[in-house]
Amino acid sequence: MRVLGIETSCDETGVAIYGDDMGLAAHAVYSQTEIHAEYGGVVPELASRDHIRKTLPLIHQVLDEAGLGANDIDGLAYTAGPGLIGALLVGSALGRSLAWAWDVPAIGVHHMEGHLLAPLLEDPAPDFPFVALLVSGGHTQLVEVQAVGQYRLLGESVDDAAGEAFDKTAKILGLPYPGGPALARLAEQGDPTRYRFPRPMTDRPGLEFSFSGLKTFALNTLHQLQTSGEDSTQGYADIARAFEDAVVDTLVIKCRRALQHSGLQRLVLAGGVSANCRLRERMTEAIEAIGGRAFFPRPALCTDNGAMIAYAGWYRLKAGQREPLAFRPRPRWSLEELAPLAG
C-alpha cells in the first residue's frame, strides 16, 4: 500500500508518500516562517491561506519526485488534529476530496501519533513497547506506548509546553522568530556556570511538567543584568544557556523517572524540541547510564512534516480503518482516545 500524507496542523505544509515497497519515497515541507516572523508568532488566518496556496503544488512535487501518478496511490492520510482549526480544515478537505476523486480510502491522523511514530522511520527503529517524550511548541507529554494505538498518558505540562517556553524566553531576550532555535544558538556561547535556574517539579514525585516559571525566572535575571549595567551580548548568552540547561535537565530527570516507573528500557523522543542538540546529547547519556536506549528521528522529521502523517496513516489504513466522507477536524484531541489497531 502506498499512502500520500498531508500535514497542515499549524504553520508548516508537509506532503509525503510512504509505501510497503518504497519506504519513504518522497517528502517535502514548506515553512511559513517568513510570513509569521513579522508578527512574532503564528497568525492562524494567514497560516490557513498559505496552506491553500501551497498544499496542492507540494502534492504534485512529491508525486513527481517519487515517479508516481494518482493511479499509484492506494490511500490518503491527513492531519485531523490537534492543531489550528482553519489549518486543519485545509488539509482535511483536500485530503478527503482527493481520496474521493481517486477512489481510495482516507484516514484522519492524530498529529501527535505522527510525531510518536516518526522514529520508527529510522534505522535502527525502536521496538514496542517504549516510553515516548513528545516535546514541541504545543505539547510536552510522556506516553507509555505498548503498540500503535495503545497509549497511556504518564504525565504532561500543567502550563507552558517546553517549546512554548523556549519561544517566549527567546522573545524576552529580543531574539528573532522562530525563537526556540535562535535561543539554542545563543546558548552555545553562554557560560554554563554563571546562572543556575530551577529545575521545576523535579523535587517531588510524579511525571508532570511546568515551564512557565522558568520564563519568569529568565525575565527577572535579565532585569538584574540590565540594572547592573552589564547589558551585554555575553550576559544574554549566559541567560540563554542557563534556561536551556534547566529545560533539558528537567526533561532528562522526568524521562529517567518514567522509564523506572514503567519498567521499560526504550525511550523515544519526538516533536520539534527533540531536534535540540543539547537535549539529544544529555538524554542519550542519561538513558544509557541506567541501561536504556534513546531513539530520535532525524532533525527533518522532528518538526511538523508529511512523512510522519503518511507513515501513521499507512499503519491504520493497512489495518482496515477508514474515514467516512463526513470528515471531522479536531483542534483538541487526546492520544488516549485513539483506537488500537485491529488484531
UniProtKB/TrEMBL annotation:
<feature type="binding site">
    <location>
        <position position="180"/>
    </location>
    <ligand>
        <name>substrate</name>
    </ligand>
</feature>
<comment type="function">
    <text>Required for the formation of a threonylcarbamoyl group on adenosine at position 37 (t(6)A37) in tRNAs that read codons beginning with adenine. Is involved in the transfer of the threonylcarbamoyl moiety of threonylcarbamoyl-AMP (TC-AMP) to the N6 group of A37, together with TsaE and TsaB. TsaD likely plays a direct catalytic role in this reaction.</text>
</comment>
<protein>
    <recommendedName>
        <fullName>tRNA N6-adenosine threonylcarbamoyltransferase</fullName>
        <ecNumber>2.3.1.234</ecNumber>
    </recommendedName>
</protein>
<dbReference type="InterPro" id="IPR017860">
    <property type="entry name" value="Peptidase_M22_CS"/>
</dbReference>
<keyword id="KW-0012">Acyltransferase</keyword>
<keyword id="KW-0808">Transferase</keyword>
<dbReference type="GO" id="GO:0002949">
    <property type="term" value="P:tRNA threonylcarbamoyladenosine modification"/>
</dbReference>
<feature type="binding site">
    <location>
        <begin position="134"/>
        <end position="138"/>
    </location>
    <ligand>
        <name>substrate</name>
    </ligand>
</feature>
<dbReference type="GO" id="GO:0005506">
    <property type="term" value="F:iron ion binding"/>
</dbReference>
<dbReference type="Pfam" id="PF00814">
    <property type="entry name" value="TsaD"/>
</dbReference>
<feature type="binding site">
    <location>
        <position position="276"/>
    </location>
    <ligand>
        <name>substrate</name>
    </ligand>
</feature>
<keyword id="KW-0963">Cytoplasm</keyword>
<feature type="binding site">
    <location>
        <position position="304"/>
    </location>
    <ligand>
        <name>Fe cation</name>
    </ligand>
</feature>
<feature type="binding site">
    <location>
        <position position="115"/>
    </location>
    <ligand>
        <name>Fe cation</name>
    </ligand>
</feature>
<dbReference type="InterPro" id="IPR043129">
    <property type="entry name" value="ATPase_NBD"/>
</dbReference>
<dbReference type="InterPro" id="IPR000905">
    <property type="entry name" value="Gcp-like_dom"/>
</dbReference>
<dbReference type="GO" id="GO:0005737">
    <property type="term" value="C:cytoplasm"/>
</dbReference>
<feature type="binding site">
    <location>
        <position position="111"/>
    </location>
    <ligand>
        <name>Fe cation</name>
    </ligand>
</feature>
<feature type="binding site">
    <location>
        <position position="167"/>
    </location>
    <ligand>
        <name>substrate</name>
    </ligand>
</feature>
<dbReference type="GO" id="GO:0008233">
    <property type="term" value="F:peptidase activity"/>
</dbReference>
<dbReference type="InterPro" id="IPR017861">
    <property type="entry name" value="KAE1/TsaD"/>
</dbReference>
<keyword id="KW-0378">Hydrolase</keyword>
<keyword id="KW-0819">tRNA processing</keyword>
<feature type="domain" description="Gcp-like">
    <location>
        <begin position="25"/>
        <end position="311"/>
    </location>
</feature>
<comment type="similarity">
    <text>Belongs to the KAE1 / TsaD family.</text>
</comment>
<dbReference type="InterPro" id="IPR022450">
    <property type="entry name" value="TsaD"/>
</dbReference>
<dbReference type="GO" id="GO:0006508">
    <property type="term" value="P:proteolysis"/>
</dbReference>
<dbReference type="GO" id="GO:0061711">
    <property type="term" value="F:tRNA N(6)-L-threonylcarbamoyladenine synthase activity"/>
</dbReference>
<keyword id="KW-0645">Protease</keyword>
<keyword id="KW-0479">Metal-binding</keyword>
<keyword id="KW-0408">Iron</keyword>
